[in-house]
Amino acid sequence: MDRDHLLLTPGPLTTTQRTKLAMLKDWGSWDADFNALTARLRTGLLDVIQGADSHVVVPLQGSGTFSVEAAVATVVPRDGHLLVLDNGAYCKRLGKLATLMGRRTTIATRPEDQPVSAAELERLLGEDPSITHVGLIHCETGTGIVNPLAEVAAVCERLGRGLIIDAMSSFGALPIDARALRFDALIAASGKCLEGVPGMGFVFIRKAILDGCAGNSHSLAMDLHDQHAYMERTGQWRFTPPTHVVAALAEALVQFQEEGGQPARLARYQANQRLLVEGLAALGLKTFLAPGLLSPIIVTFLAPEHARYDFKTFYASAKAQGFLLYPGKLTEVETFRIGCIGAIGAQEMQQAVDAVGRALRGMGIGA
Ligand SMILES: *Cc1c(COP(=O)(O)O)cnc(C)c1O
Question: What are the pLDDT digits (tens) for 314-331?
Fold first, then answer.
């Protein structure tokens, strides 16, 4: 088998051969074997955040955004009011999907190079008692910045508002403990730090609010209350499940546990990130965020200020050497992004750094 390109992207990402091989089997969606697989997966996901006592987990077909949309539709009542803490592209997407489904939405925007502020949240909630829910992106993948989850959760709990967390790119890598944090919904997906393949998301919903979510959703397919009730009753997914994706995620979760769970995964990603940032610094490349704000998930680099720099050429050269990079997502400055996540370690990261060096030299940039 040819070696796949290494995906230095925040999902889809590089998966292990074991995970890929788990997809070589067809499953019947009604069959007891597949129901058992779904049940095992749900238990394993709850374990990742120690959430079995406080939360249920509801899987949903589709990319991660489908699950964000479903979480808002299910948890925020139609006459609710969502405040989105915004410091980047995924925050704006959350604001947009809530607005489109007709939920009253307020967006509080901060600069993209700064974390959102729990103190500002406290002030905004104090000023507007009509806000029922707060939407937070844990790691804003647009820049890679990590937002202060514990502080935001504490403010929401103290002021009695619901909290919806998009933990898509942090889940499994950054610590999240449902026993220590109060949240109504937390969303993640198969193809990020658990290192499965893309195709499904999952939403942790607080048991105490679950019954009250009945009838909130304007959409049949997005109704996680209904998806949960059906799954509890029958063991099955309501509509055709992404069977191969479920099998791959279950296998990826076994490897996650074998590796040592979240702390081990974080350590590997941190080592990847240090190697990447130091390696590219030696090539003269600077990060968009201040060094203290860099996350072990994805790093945004400023494009070289050089007349001969061209992202397309840069990308093509890295690809020819076996590495897929990621374009920037900022409007103000030209950047590119490199992910630190996926089934890659120091050796692959060093090869990626070397490939970036060769790509730059190929454009006549740097030594
Ligand atoms: C990946 C990601 C999503 C989901 O994106 P999809 O393209 O729908 O999978 C949502 N939020 C964040 C923060 C992400 O990193």
Answer: 999 999 999 999 988 887
